[in-house]
Specification:
Blueprint lengths: L13 H6 L5 E3 L11 E8 L7 E4 L4 E6 L4 E6 L4 E5 L8 E3 L5 E6 L4 E6 L5 E6 L8 E5 L2 E8 L4 E8 L6 E3 L13 E5 L2 E5 L6 E7 L6 E8 L10 E4 L6 E4 L5 E3 L13 E3 L3 E7 L5 E6 L6 E4 L8 E3 L7 E8 L5 E7 L6 E8 L8 E4 L10 E7 L9 E9 L7 E9 L5 E6 L5 E9 L8 E9 L6 E5 L3 E3 L3 E8 L7 E8 L5 E7 L5 E7 L4 E7 L8 E10 L2
Parallel strand pairs: 38-44
Antiparallel strand pairs: 1-6, 2-29, 3-4, 4-5, 5-6, 7-8, 8-9, 9-10, 11-12, 12-13, 13-14, 15-16, 16-17, 17-18, 19-20, 21-22, 23-24, 24-25, 25-26, 27-28, 28-29, 30-31, 31-34, 32-33, 32-35, 35-36, 37-39, 39-42, 40-41, 40-43, 43-44
Length: 559
C-alpha cells in the first residue's frame, strides 16, 4: 500500500469526533493532539506476525495502523498514542486514504472485499466485494481508481485489480496484471502517474511499472532479479512523487541502489550507504526519502534529500527496536516521519514513533559561560555547533532568552546574528541585570535544511550586599512590660520589606510583623516580654540585593 497522504478537507475537532463514536468503534484514549517534538507510544498491537500497514491523515492528524490478527485498525494521534480502534475489519491489511481524507479504504483478504470507513466517525460506510477467492491484500490510490493486489500462491497466483470510484456505483475490474505471472498478491505503490507493483518476501524479486494514466494498467517495464537465499526478498518498495526514481528494500546489507522508471540502474541512479538490513522505504511528498533497517548498528532510519547519497538525518530508535516492514509513513506536509518499531528485546507490542522535522538535518548546540560573573558587567556566552551535513551557513540567527530573579519566566533578549568560526563556534555578549542563578537559553530556529536546536548555560551572579540591624530599647525588661525594637535596612534595589520574628525561650518562632520600612529604612515594633526572647529581623532580598538578617535578645526579669 502507498499514497499515504490526504490534506484537503475541513477538519472536525477531535472532541466532536470522539463524542460520536459508536457501533464498530472502540475508544482507547483522548482526542487528537499536536506533538511539539519527537514522541513515542506503545500501541495495542502485538508484534507477532502477520503485521499490517500504516497511512497518515493530515487533515484530522491521525495515523491508521491495520492489525490483521484482530481484524481491526488502530487509530493513533500525532504523538503516537492510540485513541481508537476500528473493529470488524476481517483480516484487514492494506490501507489507503481518499484524496479528500474523508474515507479510509481497508483491504479485507479474509472477506474478499475492500471496506470504506469514515475518518471522522470511524464507522464502516460501505464494503465492496472483489470476487470469490480474490483475497485483496495491498492498496494504492491514483485519481479515482483504487488499485489492489490480490490472490495467493495457493489460489493459483496473484494478479492486479482496480476499484473505479468515479461513478455512483464503484465497479471492480480484475485481471489487469498485463501478463505478469505474479506468484501471490503484489505489493503496490503509486507516484508520478505510474503504478509500481512488486513481489513480496520472495525470490526471484519481480518489479513491474504500469502506466495508469488511461485508467487501465499498461505495462511499461518489468524486471526479475534473483536474490541470495539468505535474503528474504523485497519487503517494501516506493516510487518518488515525480515518478522518476524507484527504490526497493530487500535486506541487502550496507547499501541500497535506486532504479530508473525503466527499472535499470545507471549514472542517474544513486547508491545509498547504510548499515543494517533495509526493510522499509518511503518518499515524502517533498521528495525526501526515508530508509528503515532491521538490526541497525546505531541508526535505524536514514533520511535523504532528493538526489543525495549521504543521509542528512540519522534516527536511532534504541537497542533491539527494529523498524517494521512497511513501517515508515510521512505526514502530508513532509514535516513529520512516523516509524513503526518493536519495543526492545522483550517488548510484546509495536511502538509508533513520531519524528519532527525529519527531512531536516539534526543540529546539536552546546552553550557555555563563565561560572561566575559580576553584576552590571558584560559577560561572554560561547555557542558551539556539532558538525552536520549539509554544513551550516557562515552566519545565522540565534534567539537569546535570559531567565533570572527579575524575569523568572524568561526575558527574550532578541535575535542575534552570529558568525561561525571554522570550529562552528560563536560568541554573544550580555550584561546581567539581576543576580543569583542566571540561565541563558540559546535557540537556533533552523532553516530549510537544518532542524531547530536549543542549548542552555547558567551563570552565578553575586548580588549586592546590604545592611540590616535590629536594636531594642533595653537589654532587659521587667516581665510583662513592653519593649520597643527597631529594624533598620540599608540600601537595596526594589524590595524594602522586613519581617520580624520572636522566639520566647522554649517556645516556637512566631512572625510579629512584615512591613515596608519607612523613608529612613526603619521598622518599629513593640512586644510584651514574658520570657527571655530572641528577636530576628529578616530581609528576603530582591533580584539585585542579597538576603540578610539580624538578631537580638531581650531578657525578662522579675523586678
Amino acid at each position: 500500500m502507498r499514497v499515504r497522504h490526504a490534506t484537503s478537507r475541513t477538519a472536525v475537532t477531535a472532541a466532536t469526533a470522539l463524542a460520536i463514536l459508536s457501533g464498530s468503534v472502540c475508544l482507547t484514549g483522548a482526542g487528537a493532539q499536536t506533538a511539539a517534538a519527537d514522541s513515542r507510544a506503545t500501541l495495542p498491537i502485538s508484534a507477532d506476525w502477520p503485521r499490517g500497514e500504516m497511512v497518515v491523515d493530515g487533515v484530522h492528524r491521525h495515523v491508521f495502523i491495520s492489525d490483521p490478527k484482530t481484524g481491526s485498525v488502530v487509530v493513533a494521534d500525532y504523538t503516537g498514542k492510540a485513541v481508537a480502534r476500528i473493529t470488524g475489519e476481517t483480516g484487514g491489511t492494506g490501507l489507503a486514504l481518499s484524496k479528500d481524507s474523508a474515507t479510509l479504504y481497508v483491504a479485507l483478504p479474509d472477506a474478499d472485499a475492500i471496506s470504506a470507513v469514515d475518518t471522522v466517525t470511524f464507522k464502516e460506510t460501505a464494503r465492496y466485494a472483489t470476487g470469490a477467492n480474490t483475497a485483496p491484500l495491498d492498496l494504492a490510490l491514483a485519481g479515482d481508481r483504487l488499485w489492489f493486489g490480490y490472490g495467493a500462491y495457493a489460489r493459483g497466483g496473484g494478479n492486479l485489480g482496480s476499484l473505479d470510484l468515479s461513478g455512483p456505483e464503484p465497479t471492480v475490474t480484475l485481471d489487469q496484471s498485463g501478463g505478469v505471472p505474479w506468484e501471490s498478491a503484489p505489493q503496490l505503490t503509486t507516484g508520478g502517474g505510474v503504478l509500481l507493483a512488486g513481489s513480496k518476501d520472495r525470490s526471484p524479486e519481480e518489479l513491474t511499472v504500469y502506466d495508469i494514466s488511461s485508467g487501465t494498467a499498461q505495462q511499461r517495464a518489468h524486471r526479475t532479479e534473483i536474490m541470495p537465499e539468505s535474503l528474504g526478498g523485497q519487503e517494501d518498495l516506493a516510487v518518488s512523487p515525480d515518478g522518476d526514481e524507484i527504490i526497493t528494500a530487500n535486506g541487502t546489507e550496507d547499501s541500497v541502489t535506486t532504479l530508473r522508471p525503466d527499472l535499470f540502474r545507471g549514472k542517474d541512479t544513486r547508491t545509498l550507504q547504510i548499515q543494517g538490513e533495509p526493510n522499509a522505504v518511503e518518499y515524502a511528498p517533498n521528495g525526501a526519502l526515508a530508509v528503515g533497517v532491521r538490526y541497525g548498528r546505531g541508526t535505524d532510519t536514514y533520511v535523504y534529500r532528493p538526489g543525495d547519497t549521504r543521509a542528512t538525518r540519522f534516527i536511532s530508535t534504541g537497542l533491539y527496536n527494529s523498524v517494521q516492514p512497511h513501517g515508515l509513513a510521512w505526514a502530508p506536509d513532509s514535516s513529520r516521519l512516523f516509524i513503526l518499531t518493536t519495543d526492545g528485546a522483550g517488548g510484546k507490542n509495536l511502538v509508533l514513533r513520531s519524528i519532527d522535522d525529519a527531512t531536516k538535518a539534526a543540529t546539536s548546540l552546546k552553550a557555555s559561560a563563565p561560572a561566575k560573573a559580576p553584576l552590571d558587567k558584560k559577560l561572554t556566552l560561547t555557542g558551539t555547533f556539532a558538525f552536520v551535513l549539509p554544513e551550516l551557513p557562515g552566519s545565522l540567527p540565534i534567539e537569546v532568552t535570559r531567565t533570572d530573579l527579575a524575569s523568572p519566566k524568561g526575558k527574550p533578549l532578541g535575535t542575534r546574528t552570529v558568525w561561525l568560526s571554522r570550529d562552528r563556534e560563536f560568541k554573544i555578549e550580555d550584561t546581567p541585570a539581576a543576580g543569583g542563578k542566571v540561565t541563558y537559553t540559546l535557540r537556533y530556529p533552523g532553516d530549510a535544511t537544518h532542524a531547530p536546536t536549543t542549548a542552555t548555560t547558567t551563570v552565578t551572579v553575586p548580588r549586592n550586599k546590604t545592611t540590616l540591624t535590629l536594636a531594642a530599647n533595653a537589654k532587659t525588661v521587667v516581665r510583662g512590660k513592653t519593649a520597643t525594637l527597631t529594624a533598620k535596612l540599608g540600601r537595596t534595589w526594589k524590595e524594602r520589606k522586613v519581617s520580624v520574628y520572636a522566639q520566647p525561650a522554649g517556645g516556637a518562632k512566631k512572625l510579629l510583623r512584615t512591613a515596608t520600612v519607612d523613608r529612613t529604612g526603619k521598622l518599629v515594633i513593640t512586644y510584651k516580654v514574658t520570657k527571655n526572647t530572641t528577636f530576628t529581623a529578616v530581609y528576603g532580598g530582591d533580584a539585585r540585593t542579597e538576603p540578610t538578617q539580624a538578631a537580638t535578645t531581650i531578657k525578662a526579669r522579675t523586678r
